[in-house]
Amino acid sequence: MAESDTALGYEQARDELIEVVRKLEAGGTSLEESLALWERGEELAKVCRHWLEGARARLDSALAAREAAEEE
Asked: What is the structure's pLDDT at 35?
């Protein structure tokens, strides 16, 4: 993941990914442009996955802490 990509928030990465997919689905781009869009989409998907995995970890941690507190 590029350093500039790590600065993207989830919503920014998601919105850009939606735009990339829209362009790919619309067609009309050269092979080189399509490959560049695909590669960008893969990077944006990684950013989104990173954010979602972090959110899942935070939720799991909060749920575990709540369960531990309820057991005491």
From this structure: 98
To the nearest whole number, what is the mean pLDDT of the chain?
93
Residue 72 has what pLDDT?
81
Long-range residue pairs from 17-20, CB within 8 A, at least 24 positions apart, any chain: 17/41, 17/44, 17/45, 17/48, 20/44
Find all residues with CB under 8 Å of 40, minimum gap 6, and list them: 16, 20
pLDDT digits (tens, 9 = 90+) for 14-28: 999 999 999 999 999
**5-8 long-range Cβ contacts below 8 angstroms, 24+ apart:** 5/43, 5/44, 5/46, 5/47, 6/47, 6/50, 8/44, 8/47
